[in-house]
């Protein structure tokens, strides 16, 4: 398996090959995911909920993400490593750059930020300085208190138009990947068709360029709320590695997500 780069992901999108992404937080799971065919891993700030037991992602620090990114990087050989920028670490472009440097030095190949048009200057500054950016639109968990809960986004005409505009803005600013979370499947398909960069869906329908799930959700070990878009791949699997391989296969053949996982 050759190392996965931003070019690999773009080529997969251009050929219509689906990209498989999972969250990952340590070296052992990183090695397991790598040998199981996962294309890219995300050190998500979801670790605040699934590893640290918090009620939201807001308490996660840049040090937390750097620590887990370094652990994942040690277990990895070929996957593209994306690290989340935590809440409050990219309020200004310069702050974003200083914090992104910490994650890149810990072993990330790309950083992810939640937001749209307002992040254009930040995305431009990071990408011009050699830091690839993944944007994240739709349900953005760091804004849970602004959104008034974890709710499906882009359901109104106005909401859908805003999402289209934000997607175009982050692409124009230089983002090379876009996560779409908890939006109607039709909107996920439209935004993906409108862009030339790959989209990675989580509750955004099967027509995104790829899919992501939180590892603890797809292994059925997270004790909290189970979102509609979650599927437990341990059902019928003989081992954790089997479950991860089943996830990769289901993303590739588009049997996941099914209608029951979509909005
Ligand atoms: O933190 C995370 O795990 C994420 C994914 C759900 C996209 O941002
Ligand atoms: Na996240």
TrEMBL record:
<feature type="binding site">
    <location>
        <begin position="45"/>
        <end position="46"/>
    </location>
    <ligand>
        <name>3-methyl-2-oxobutanoate</name>
    </ligand>
</feature>
<feature type="binding site">
    <location>
        <position position="112"/>
    </location>
    <ligand>
        <name>3-methyl-2-oxobutanoate</name>
    </ligand>
</feature>
<feature type="binding site">
    <location>
        <position position="114"/>
    </location>
    <ligand>
        <name>Mg(2+)</name>
    </ligand>
</feature>
<comment type="subunit">
    <text>Homodecamer; pentamer of dimers.</text>
</comment>
<keyword id="KW-0479">Metal-binding</keyword>
<feature type="binding site">
    <location>
        <position position="84"/>
    </location>
    <ligand>
        <name>Mg(2+)</name>
    </ligand>
</feature>
<comment type="similarity">
    <text>Belongs to the PanB family.</text>
</comment>
<keyword id="KW-0460">Magnesium</keyword>
<dbReference type="InterPro" id="IPR015813">
    <property type="entry name" value="Pyrv/PenolPyrv_kinase-like_dom"/>
</dbReference>
<dbReference type="InterPro" id="IPR003700">
    <property type="entry name" value="Pantoate_hydroxy_MeTrfase"/>
</dbReference>
<feature type="binding site">
    <location>
        <position position="45"/>
    </location>
    <ligand>
        <name>Mg(2+)</name>
    </ligand>
</feature>
<protein>
    <recommendedName>
        <fullName>3-methyl-2-oxobutanoate hydroxymethyltransferase</fullName>
        <ecNumber>2.1.2.11</ecNumber>
    </recommendedName>
</protein>
<keyword id="KW-0808">Transferase</keyword>
<keyword id="KW-0566">Pantothenate biosynthesis</keyword>
<comment type="function">
    <text>Catalyzes the reversible reaction in which hydroxymethyl group from 5,10-methylenetetrahydrofolate is transferred onto alpha-ketoisovalerate to form ketopantoate.</text>
</comment>
<dbReference type="GO" id="GO:0003864">
    <property type="term" value="F:3-methyl-2-oxobutanoate hydroxymethyltransferase activity"/>
</dbReference>
<feature type="active site" description="Proton acceptor">
    <location>
        <position position="181"/>
    </location>
</feature>
<keyword id="KW-0963">Cytoplasm</keyword>
<dbReference type="Pfam" id="PF02548">
    <property type="entry name" value="Pantoate_transf"/>
</dbReference>
<comment type="pathway">
    <text>Cofactor biosynthesis; (R)-pantothenate biosynthesis; (R)-pantoate from 3-methyl-2-oxobutanoate: step 1/2.</text>
</comment>
<dbReference type="InterPro" id="IPR040442">
    <property type="entry name" value="Pyrv_kinase-like_dom_sf"/>
</dbReference>
<feature type="binding site">
    <location>
        <position position="84"/>
    </location>
    <ligand>
        <name>3-methyl-2-oxobutanoate</name>
    </ligand>
</feature>
